[in-house]
Write a structure and sequence with these properties.
It is a single chain. Among the domains are: 116 residues; 89 residues, no CATH class. The chain is mainly α. 25% of the residues are buried. The model has no long low-confidence stretch (mean pLDDT 91). The chain contains 15 helices and no strands.
Length: 321
């Protein structure tokens, strides 16, 4: 198939032939090329790029394209391209200091992600038809890709996970369990896991949709996952997203404020002034949403912590206090 002449344009195909031509172009896009070698398969890479743009456009503008065979071929094409082994991470790479990493195949991968988004957004999309392909295994593989150092890909993964969570009600509990497991891995095995920020952004949207009173499962996540994340040496990288999640919990169920604040204050950094400034910022946001009845329960601990800060010799801590 790689050596065949280029397929006709989808825009020139007769309606009766368009679906078959669409399928053939999707099958071609399943081929994965070596982008580390810019001289390899130049013609085939360009043809794949053209085909990807064509199927994206037709999925975006056409109706009646998303039928059973196209579901299977669409998710197969996505899996062939995205669910590949990630390159080894560079232990010396610092996302705060070094230039963003972009893999050589990103221009094609971006089109693959865009096609997935067009499928999920299609007016013809039916989760009942797609559930045979977007299943537990698909979610696990998608979550694994958050280990990439490529910021662009993590942004696309975040969008994909968020849309799948919104459309597949039957997968929501499983997605939350996978997120829980991924954070546990990060806390106890992989402190430098790249995708924690993006997963927290998805989680922020998930928490926003929780009904009150909160389920026990959700409360456990606050204390067993979000609270320990404050001890991460990479806290600065994702603190804003972490604080957003915490504050939403406390707004939804004010009764969680007292136990959370007590445990939060016990984790207060004692010798790391930059991290103490971050904790002060979070405490300020918690105080903004804390009800007076909850503040009374912990006012002593909070005031003692502020008094300690006033005596700090570090100017940033004094200023923040």
């Amino acid at each position: 198939m790689l050596n065949e002449p280029p397929l006709p344009l989808l825009s020139n195909a007769r309606p009766s032939e368009r679906l078959e031509l669409f399928s053939r172009k999707l099958r071609y896009c399943c081929y994965v090329f070596d982008f580390e070698d810019p001289e390899a398969n130049v013609r085939e890479k360009e043809l794949k790029r053209i085909y990807l743009n064509e199927v994206i456009e037709l999925m975006e503008t056409g109706r009646g394209i998303l039928v059973e065979p196209i579901y299977a071929m669409s998710f197969s094409m996505f899996a062939h391209n995205v669910f590949r082994p990630l390159p080894p991470r560079d232990p010396k790479y610092d996302p705060d200091e070094d230039d963003p990493i972009s893999t050589p195949d990103w221009p094609h991968l971006q089109l693959v992600y865009t096609y997935l988004f067009r499928v999920l957004e299609s007016a013809d999309f039916q989760p009942s038809e797609a559930k045979n392909y977007i299943d537990h295994k698909f979610v696990c593989k998608l979550m694994d890709k958050f280990g990439t150092d490529d910021l662009n890909e993590r942004e696309c993964l975040k969008t994909a996970l968020h849309r799948i969570y919104g459309k597949f009600l039957g997968l929501r509990a499983f997605i939350r369990r996978v997120i829980n497991h991924k954070f546990l891995e990060m806390l106890y095995e992989d402190l430098k896991f790249p995708g924690v920020l993006e997963i927290l952004e998805v989680l922020g949207s998930i928490i926003n949709g929780y009904a009150c009173p909160l389920k026990q499962e959700h409360k456990q996540f606050l204390f067993q996952i979000l609270l320990p994340l404050h001890s991460s040496p990479d806290l600065q990288r994702f603190q804003a997203q972490l604080v957003y999640c915490v504050v939403q919990y406390l707004e939804k169920e004010p009764g969680l404020t007292e136990p959370f604040v007590r445990k939060f204050l016990k984790r207060w950094p004692r010798t790391f002034s930059a991290k103490e400034v971050m904790f002060l910022g979070e405490l300020e946001e918690i105080l903004d949403v804390m009800q007076p009845s909850e503040f009374v329960k912990v006012q002593g601990e909070i005031c003692r912590k502020i008094a300690e800060g006033v005596r700090s010799e570090h100017f940033q801590v004094n200023k923040t206090k």
